[in-house]
Amino acid sequence: MNTPFAIEVDKLTKRFGDFIAVNAITFKVKKGEIFGFLGANGAGKTTAIKMLIGLSKPTEGMGKIAGFNVDTEPEKIKKNIGYMSQKFSLYDDLTVVENIQFYGGIYGLSRKKIKEKTTEILEELELTEVSKSLVISLPLGWKQRLAFAISMVHDPEIVFLDEPTGGVDPRVRRQFWETIYQVAEKGRTVFVTTHYMDEAEYCDRVSIMVAGKIEALDTPHNLKQQFEATSMDEVFLKLAR
User: Fold this and answer.
1) How many CB atoms lie within 10 A of CB 178?
2) pLDDT at 35 (0 to 100)
3) What is the pLDDT of residue 124?
4) Prediction pTM value
5) Listed residue (160, 167, 233, 158) closest to 200, CA to CA
6) For residue 241, what pLDDT band results from cuts at 50, 70 and 90?
7) Which of 15, 39, 59, 203 is a plausible cystine mate for 209, CB 3.0–4.6 Å?
8) Which pLDDT score is estimated for 6?
9) Domain span at residue 117?
10) Which residues does 52 contact at the CB level (< 8 Å), separation at least 6?
11) How many angstroms separate the CA atoms of 204 and 39, rounded?
């Protein structure tokens, strides 16, 4: 990747018949940036993300993720990104170790690398003592951190997090954002969706989608100044009117 950008999107559009779910969105995300992708339910966030991670073909426009084209190279994109869904994508009926090993295999890691990564994740998350416990028995905050670590088991340049803090208490949410910062400090790009407007303050830049269009994109500080607001909640409310 000889560009400073991890993600480049130009007029990306998705139609379903006469309905335009994503309407010519354009933005770029720098390498190592924490980029917030905000919007109410039905704004088009999920449809946009599916195009970006190679799960849905765009109707029009261009997108490049880690240097690969979303229209023609979706399989290469999938191999070069990490993805954590809102439901964490963990298998409750497998142990902690078995989940790590399973996803390591999915991403094509060697047995040696899977063993190294398993030890690394268990030690970093302090899960060694419960490594043989079923995931279903873990507290929600531990599941969240484990799912995040597994999404990066293959050392991707870019990590997509879809509502990663949904359903957890404020204390656990803050702890999780500390983990996100640690990942970004190592040079990874983090693309995160959230409906918690206070979490937008943790991002380097945010975009706000309304009815399929990006209606605002800047740093949280600049957006609050632009909309004469004291919080990102207030910015969002003004845009949604």
Assistant:
1) 9
2) 97
3) 85
4) 0.90
5) 233
6) confident
7) 39
8) 96
9) 5-240
10) 7, 9, 63, 65, 70, 77, 160, 191
11) 17
| Helix (H) / strand (E) containing 193 | strand 189-193
Question: What tens digit of pLDDT does each residue of 142-194 get?
Answer: 888 899 999 999 999 999 998 888 777 888 888 889 889 988 998 999 999 98
CATH of the domain at 186: 3.40.50.300
What's the total number of domains in the chain?
1
Q: Rounded to the nearest 5 degrees, what angle is found at the Cα of 154, between the Cα atoms of 152 and 160?
A: 40
127: its two tokens: 């899960």
Between CA 96 and CA 94 the distance in angstroms is 7
Interatomic CA distance for residues 46 and 139, integer angstroms: 27
Per-residue model confidence (pLDDT) at position 133: 93
Cα atoms in the 13 Å half-sphere on the side-chain side of 37: 28
User: CB of 138 within 8 A of CB of 96?
Assistant: yes
Task: Report the 3 state secondary structure along 3-37.
Answer: CCEEEEEEEEEEEECCEEEEEEEEEEEECCCEEEE
Length of the chain equals: 241
- Checking if the pLDDT of 207 tops 90, the result is yes
Evaluated on CA atoms 118, 128, 161, 59, the torsion sign reads: positive
DSSP letters spanning 81-150: EEEE-TTTT--TTSBHHHHHHHHHHHTT--HHHHHHHHHHHHHHTT-GGGTTSBGGGS-HHHHHHHHHHH
